[in-house]
Amino acid sequence: MLNYEKGSKERKIVEEALKQMKSECPDIPCIVGGKEIRTGRMGKQVMPANHSHVLATFHEADAKVTQQAIESAMKAKKHWESMSFESRAAVFLKAADLLTTKWRGKVMAATMLGQAKTAWQAEIDCMAEAADFFRFNAKFAESLYAQQPPENSQHIWNRLQYRPLEGFVYAVSPFNFTAIGANLPCAPAQMGNVTLWKPSSTAMLSNYLVYQVLAEAGLPEGVINFLPGHGKEISDEVFKHRDFAGLHFTGSTATFKSLWRQISDNLDGFRAYPRIVGETGGKNFHIVHESADLDNAVINTVRSAFEYQGQKCSACSRVYVPDTMWPQFKDKMLSIVSQIKMGPSDDFSNFMSAVIDENSFNRLESAIQRAKNDPDCEIIAGGQTDKSKGYFVPPTIVVSTNPSSWHMVSEMFGPVLTVYVYPTNKFSDILTLADNTSEYGLTGSIFANDRMVIDQAQDALRNAAGNFYINDKSTGAVVGQQPFGGARGSGTNDKAGSVLNLLRWVSPRSVKENFVPATAWTYPHMH
């Protein structure tokens, strides 16, 4: 992790890349079998903090290009899956080094300008996490291949072969993490699969640069095919092909459910049952106990709720505070929020920037207006939006007297935090309430210094969060340390950043080899 302090070498590299990128507008093609295809059907990516500035244009894949991508992937499959694990891993290990050295400035700049991330948020994402995915997945794959059955006889050799899936994998990535864009097509590829990658239109430039990094690292043509465009049109072609073998998805719960239904409707036409892996929404909680370190709880809540404008599936969206702590908690939180500076991400003094696009802005503006009209809600910070130049939504705090209000239940995916103040002596009831309030089960945190309370919360919230934090913010996962994913409405919990995810992209085969031939057909009990 680099800090980008004023005057540092890394700061200068990124500042120069930001300046250059703002003066350019690259034309991004589809890439099929390593060849650029320009369809003439154009989309554009604008800067969220200055939506009049077009950062890049891109060519949208149609049905024909999607079919070509499938053919290209299947053609590349035989050679790629027959390569040694070491040769495949080397591509991604080299990509990690290229990303964090030669390509650092460009990918950082694209993530900052195109996805409105501050330097620190971009560093966490497109540098540290993306490189960690490439490196840790290689190590996890190595450990998976090493898992072999014990010998059960001196005359028998048992072994497991971890075959890639029989077909191609479809990777659909979101706007909010360049690293997820890197991981969704690459994790299956590391295990010998070939993929079609549909990047988000609002993360197009950074994702395209990641593809270029992979190509420079030696990724063979056709292993990963880059398909900008409309999800429905591409998906329609993918899901009717007999060689569709798996979906690797991160995005909204509604979209994931829709794709799952479409896959199910086409089940009779597939060569095998597809693997469906998805990470979707969250209504993530912080629960504060009266024994908690107050400053720690406040700081982590502000960071989790408002870093990257709350546009993380793990962001804190609801917080439960005991009434005896609320006056102090409120004062400290409002003091911090009043100091938060919001503006363009290339101004390094800003803590927050714009939300990703107009649809997101309008949705959040509507949610804030709904709070203003709800007699159970009071807005104590923020609430004034502005999209005249960029899609700016300030850090907004809603206090709800109804623990089941719309704002306590619904995912916001933006910088809107809802607080419920509970009677201090009702902590056990709050654990039950928090467990049952939302359809989601992604992340959650308990803040307490009483160990009995921590154990009580861990047990009561067993199914409420796939990533559970103790005295830390709900956005604290690190690749290789806290495998990430949730269940319920939050996805299939296949844990990106661990061997568990890679296991989904292989189809094991057991091999038993007998070295001593049989000499009789009868058994001892027959004599």
How does this model look, in words?
This protein is α/β, with parallel strands linked by helices and 527 residues long. The protein folds into two domains: 285 residues, 3-Layer(aba) Sandwich (Aldehyde Dehydrogenase, Chain A, domain 1); 187 residues, Aldehyde Dehydrogenase, Chain A, domain 2 (3-Layer(aba) Sandwich). It has 16 helices and 21 strands. The strands form six sheets. It has a seven-stranded mixed beta sheet with strand order 14-15-16-13-12-18-19, with helices on both faces. A five-stranded parallel beta sheet has the order 9-8-7-10-11, sandwiched between helices. It has a three-stranded mixed beta sheet with strand order 1-5-4. β7, α6 and β8 form a beta-alpha-beta unit. α1 crosses α4. The longest helix is centred in the first third of the chain and has 27 residues. The chain is globular, with a radius of gyration of 25 Å. The mean pLDDT is 97.
Tell me briefly what this model is:
This protein is α/β, with parallel strands linked by helices and 527 residues long. It is 40% helix and 21% strand. The protein has helices at 9-22, 63-82, 85-100, 104-115, 119-145, 178-190, 204-216, 231-238, 253-265, 294-306, 326-339, 358-373, 406-409, 427-437, 451-460, 499-503, and strands spanning 27-28, 30-32, 35-37, 42-47, 50-59, 156-164, 168-172, 194-198, 224-226, 244-250, 275-279, 284-288, 316-322, 377-381, 396-400, 416-422, 440-441, 443-447, 467-470, 487-488, 506-514.
